[in-house]
């Protein structure tokens, strides 16, 4: 849920604005904000699961 908020508010909206500000921008560039945001959200989830996995390993060792 948090990664969704980060992706939508901190990435998708600003990226859409930046992409449309480029010279010669069209709807293709505007549409690229969504997959870029989804990619970043996936990376955030993978990093979180990796960290969680490491944390669980440390608890099992102790």
TrEMBL record:
UniProtKB keywords: Membrane, Transmembrane, Transmembrane helix
Keyword Membrane: yes
Transmembrane region(s): 26-49
Identification of the protein by name: MATE family efflux transporter
Source organism (scientific name): Ligilactobacillus ruminis
């Amino acid at each position: 849920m948090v990664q969704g908020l980060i992706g939508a508010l901190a990435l998708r909206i600003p990226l859409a604005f930046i992409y449309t500000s480029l010279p010669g921008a069209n709807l293709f560039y505007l549409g690229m904000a969504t997959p870029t945001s989804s990619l970043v959200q996936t990376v955030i989830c993978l990093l979180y699961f990796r960290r969680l996995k490491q944390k669980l390993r440390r608890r099992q060792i102790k």
